[in-house]
């Protein structure tokens, strides 16, 4: 499996620890609950959250890369390392 995935934002949930981003990708290719964790202590949290919000509002695709070298696993949470917009 891969360490990155691309899809359009369909869910954006903010909580005290950061945010979760849900994509319209195949759930078999995503992490637990098909939600990607953007940690509040991420060095670029504000910029990434703003980009996710803009992507959701404009229906842009996000290319999300997870932390570490382990492949995405449907049974565990996946923390976001970085992402970019795929226009």
- Domain module count: 1
Strand content: 35-45%
Compressed to H and E, one letter per element, the order equals EEEHEE
- Give Rg in angstroms: 12 Å
Regarding CATH, which class?
A: Mainly Beta
Description of the structure:
This protein has 87 residues and is of the alpha+beta class. The protein has one domain (4-86): OB fold (Dihydrolipoamide Acetyltransferase, E2P) (Beta Barrel). It is built from one helix and five strands. Strand 1 (4-15) and strand 2 (18-23) form a beta hairpin.
Could you name the key traits of this structure?
OB fold (Dihydrolipoamide Acetyltransferase, E2P); five-stranded mixed beta barrel; 1 helix; 44% strand; alpha+beta; 87 residues
SSE topology sketch:
Layout: E1 4-15, E2 18-23, E3 35-39, H1 45-58, E4 61-66, E5 78-86
Parallel strand pairs: 3-5
Antiparallel strand pairs: 1-2, 1-4, 2-3, 4-5
Q: What's the gist of this structure?
A:
With 87 residues, the chain is of the alpha+beta class. It has one domain (4-86): OB fold (Dihydrolipoamide Acetyltransferase, E2P) (Beta Barrel), CATH 2.40.50.50.
């Amino acid at each position: 499996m891969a360490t990155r995935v691309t899809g359009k934002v369909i869910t954006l949930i903010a909580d005290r620890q950061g945010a979760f981003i849900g994509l319209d990708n195949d759930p078999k290719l995503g992490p637990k609950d098909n939600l990607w964790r953007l940690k509040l202590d991420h060095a670029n949290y504000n910029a990434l959250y703003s980009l996710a919000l803009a992507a959701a509002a404009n229906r842009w695709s996000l290319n999300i890369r997870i932390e570490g070298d382990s492949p995405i696993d449907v049974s565990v949470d996946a923390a976001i390392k970085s992402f970019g917009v795929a226009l």
